[in-house]
Amino acid sequence: MPADTTARRNSRFWLYAPFVLLAILAAGWSGLWMMARGKVEQHLDAGIAREAAAGRNWTCRDRSIGGYPFRIELRCAGVTLVSSRWGDEVKVETGPAVAVAQATAPGHLILQATGPLTATLPARQNADLNWSALEASLRLTTTGFERISLVVHDPVATLRTPDETGGLRSETLRSALFEAHLRPNQQNYASQQAVDVALTTKGAVLPVLDALLGDAAPSDLDVQATVLQSYAFRRGFNPDALESWRTANGGIEITRLSLLKGTARFEASGRLGLDEAHRPAGQVDAAVAGIERVAGIRVGGLTAGLGALLGGRANAAQSNAAAGLTPLPPVVLREGRVFLGPVRLPLQPLRPLY
User: Fold this and answer.
1) What is the model's pTM?
2) What burial class does residue 178 get, using C-beta atoms within 10 Å of its C-beta: 0-12 exposed, 13-18 middle, 19+ buried?
3) Dist CA 225 CA 254 (whole Å)
């Protein structure tokens, strides 16, 4: 064979080789993506079946899975949850939703949903929630989760409950921004199933708080807490889970609760749980600045002469004083009532959660 013919064939081979290799890689990647898509669909169907067996029926309307070549996207024209775990049927519906994961990092999910969310609740209650943008991020591992985050812009929630006349009494809560973050507590997750929770809301309008402090200014709230015995909620948030959590000595340890409302400041820490009647119970130690009255009671009158009641908390009192805060008597939730030191606040009795 002439040398020039062999040279021409070799030059053509290197000319076409990259395209052939690219086609092989594309075919291989397409096959892997289709396998991943099938696995997602298989796990999704299995998860829906498990939820149905537990009394929670999920529906993803017009479900589709796409995102080729580099992502896997699950899209629903609407999501519906119907649960019988609260005795009366609970039904929750949202608008279009999408869950996205990169094909190279399937354990990191990004979820987006369009409002409104509507809920039919027990005891003739109903609620709706709307927002301008909602996004959640889930970092999952083979044994659980690494971090869960939720960011909601401009949330507006309305709860309607029956009143004495047979009608519905409505209460609306709104905020400019709401964020929630959850992650396992590094020290106590294995021993106490402890999960750290951080909640933040900016520009919130909370009518109950407005009435309590006599101030209609928007509020900024920051909460850092640890939930103990969190495994009780692995199968959902329902009466069975709450009772399991209560009997396991579950509780919420509030590391820091900070509230800014106009010129008012409120700082607190403590522990909350549930009593035998399934009502919130516990104690919170708090300090305030710029607040003259709480539920119509003068703060100055409550804090005067409380040296004996605050005994043993001298260091905390000194720290509060250095921060310009006035310590309050303990805020105690007991037997369905709210007490500020020895004084019962004129608030509606706390209802059982289940």
Assistant:
1) 0.81
2) buried
3) 4
Omega before residue 69 within 30° of 0, cis? yes
**Side chain identity at residue 174, one-letter code:** R
Q: Which residues of 203-226 are buried (b: 16+ CB within 10 A; e: fewer)?
A: ebbbeebeebbebeebbbbbbbbb
Instruction: Count Cβ atoms within 10 A of the Cβ of residue 70 and give its class: 0-12 exposed, 13-18 middle, 19 or more buried.
Output: exposed
Element (H or E) spanning 60, and its range?
strand 56-61
**Per-residue pLDDT for the chain (354 aa), expressed as one digit of tens each?**
555 555 555 556 566 667 777 778 778 778 888 888 888 888 888 888 988 888 889 999 999 999 888 889 999 999 999 988 776 789 999 999 999 988 778 888 999 999 999 999 888 899 999 999 999 999 987 777 899 999 999 999 999 998 888 788 899 999 999 999 999 998 999 899 999 999 999 999 988 888 878 888 999 999 999 999 999 998 778 888 999 999 999 999 999 999 999 888 999 999 999 999 999 999 999 998 887 777 666 665 555 444 334 443 444 544 554 467 888 889 999 999 999 888 888 888 998 988
User: Nearest 5°: phi and psi at 46?
Assistant: -65, -40
- The tokens for 290 are 């710029």
How far is residue 39's CA from residue 20's CA, in Å, rounded to a whole number?
29
Q: How far is 86 from 293, CA to CA, in rounded Å?
A: 38
Tokens found for residue 173:
């809560």
∠ CA(86), CA(277), CA(85), 5° rounding?
10
What are the distances in angstroms from CA 123 to CA 87, 117, 275?
Answer: 10, 19, 22
